[in-house]
Amino acid sequence: MFTGLVQSIGTVRGLGSAEAGTRLLVEPGRTDWKASPGDSISISGCCLTVAQIVRHEVDLFAFDVVPQTLQCTTLGDLQVEQKVNMEHAATMSTLMGGHLVQGHVDGIATVSRIDRNDGEYRVTFQLPEDLVELAPPRGSISIDGVSLTIAETGGGSIEVVLVPTTLQETTLGSLGQGDRVNIESDCIARSVVHWLQTTRGSGS
Hints:
The protein has three helices and twelve strands, in the order βββββαββββββαβα. By secondary structure, it is mainly beta. The chain is globular, with a radius of gyration of 17 Å. The longest helix is centred in the last third of the chain and has 16 residues, at 187-202. Helices cover 14% and strands 42% of the residues.
């Protein structure tokens, strides 16, 4: 479980074949950001397990990414030197400044519009059709692992407002039109929608 508050911007340092799929090497953006094999870390919204710490000039975190994750998330698009959002798994003492993020990506959205007006930075994302009902106005959503509030909805899309801190301390500040991002709906909203669909189907 994560909070959606990015702790470090990492850099992809390597991509190669592994027995389980693809071996991903990431360098954290902070030298004081440590991990151990077995730790769960959110990489741009995807919960991955540290397979190994590769000792180099700096420590690199190695992850084995399975084919399904590569197909269902933007991790399959990663290139060496690309930036990623990183967050350690939350503990019982972690400040819940965002919302409950599981690191289980629901789908991939596309940046359809970016507006910079009157000091506001608004980004519109086109959602997969099956995620539209899980994204209500003023609801929470995780975009590339960043906890955000949905400002507006309509036409199968959502709009969010990015504050300067988010632009500076996450990868969302470098988004361009047409870019793809990982989307995770609020787990509470997802559970409620699933329950309603199930009860309707059973005739209760």
